[in-house]
Design brief:
Structural class: alpha/beta
Number of helices: 15
CATH topology of the largest domain: TIM Barrel
Helix content: 40-55%
Number of strands: 10
Distance between the termini: 24 Å
CATH class of the largest domain: Alpha Beta
Oligomer: single chain
Radius of gyration: 19 Å
Length: 359
């Protein structure tokens, strides 16, 4: 539903993405499916499909489902090192999608290919120099994710990272979004005050009526306090923020050598479930090892992470799975529809803007 939005809330992000509100729903594996993505775009934000846990054909099907539910712009989150990354880029282009997002830096040739086709590219960064690097590639927008977020991008808090990335982007056309700790209209107004063009949220969208996370898992999220999360490297060898559970405590206490065989087995299982051949699974792992300078054990753990996430977020078994989250989970206590959430955020942000403007 269209609403009266102050000019201050109609930002460059709205223009770049072709959306009504400067709010992006990030691509969360096993969570950001067709239903959540379509709901976000229909409500005026930018929905993004998470494709890393989908086969190419599943992604094709998910895109078709989103298109059947909305005619508004949406995007797809991609991994630059997947064996079929080129085919996925071709699919995004042939389907006429507005946005391709990357949680890790894409290759220059991938950005060039998307730019040539008129696809907007977004990359998540955790430092000003990372924003400068991808901007030089021709990326259109960055998500500056602070330490309150999923943990992958470092420990700098959003309040410090975001203005520095904004400063690094001065003099360019780079659109900057803030992520990590955002969940309401006050946060959107604060991000704009820092000079950003909008916000991106994961956990807040995970906890909506359309996210399809199992009820028992949703209850755990809603009951988690601000102090109930932990950033751990025990899952995939890289820092990741999750809800602290007995399984996470046990995993952190477990020697690395004992984690490796189980991780390797789960990596093979994930490959079978995802329809990925052992050859392609090995290629992906080797590319990850090269790009991220991982050890063999870390490589197996990295491939194992999707299965542990699926166990909780799809199968509803948090005793053996992990619960990825931002620290903001402790501030969220309800499950609105996506439309209700976006409407509320925009109304709150408008109130802040009007109050600060003396109206």
């Amino acid at each position: 539903m269209s609403r009266d939005v102050p000019n201050a809330l109609r930002t460059r992000a709205c223009e770049l993405f072709g959306v009504e509100y400067p709010i992006v729903q990030t691509g969360m594996g096993w969570v950001s499916g067709a239903q959540l993505t379509a709901a976000t775009s229909s409500a005026g934000g930018l929905g993004i499909l998470a494709s890393a846990t989908m086969t190419l054909e599943e992604l094709r099907s998910a895109i078709a489902k989103v298109k059947s539910r909305t005619d508004k712009p949406f995007g797809v989150n991609l991994l630059p090192n997947q064996p079929d990354a080129s085919e996925r880029l071709d699919l995004v282009i042939s389907e006429g999608l507005k946005v391709a997002s990357f949680a890790a830096a894409p290759r220059a040739e991938q950005v060039a290919k998307l730019n040539e086709a008129g696809v907007v590219t977004i990359v998540t960064v955790g430092a000003p120099r990372h924003a400068e690097k991808v901007a030089a590639m021709g990326v259109s927008a960055v998500i500056a994710q602070g330490g309150e977020g999923g943990g992958h991008t470092g420990t700098i808090p959003t309040s410090l990272l975001l203005p520095q990335v904004v400063d690094a982007a001065k003099g360019s056309d780079l659109v900057v979004l803030g992520a990590g700790g955002f969940f309401d209209g006050r946060g959107l107004a604060a991000a704009l005050a820092y000079g950003a063009d909008g916000i991106a949220m994961g956990t807040r969208f995970l906890l909506t009526a359309e996210s399809q996370v199992p009820d028992n898992v949703t209850s755990i999220y809603l009951e988690t306090p601000l102090t109930g999360t932990v950033v751990t490297s025990a899952i995939d060898g890289a820092p990741q923020r999750v809800i602290r559970t007995a399984m996470i405590d046990a995993l952190e206490k477990s020697p690395g050598l004992l984690r490796f065989p189980k991780a390797a087995g789960n990596a093979v299982r994930f490959g079978r479930q995802a329809g990925v051949s052992m050859v392609d699974l090995a290629k992906t792992g080797l590319q990850m090892r090269k790009d991220q300078e991982l050890s063999w054990a870390q490589m197996a753990l990295a491939a194992n992470a999707p299965m542990m996430t699926k166990a909780a977020m799809v199968d509803g078994d948090p005793d053996v799975g992990i619960l990825p989250t931002g620290q903001v989970v402790g501030a969220i206590k309800d499950l609105p529809s996506v439309a209700e959430l976006l409407g509320r955020i925009m109304d709150e942000a408008a109130d802040v803007v009007n109050r600060l403007g003396g109206e």
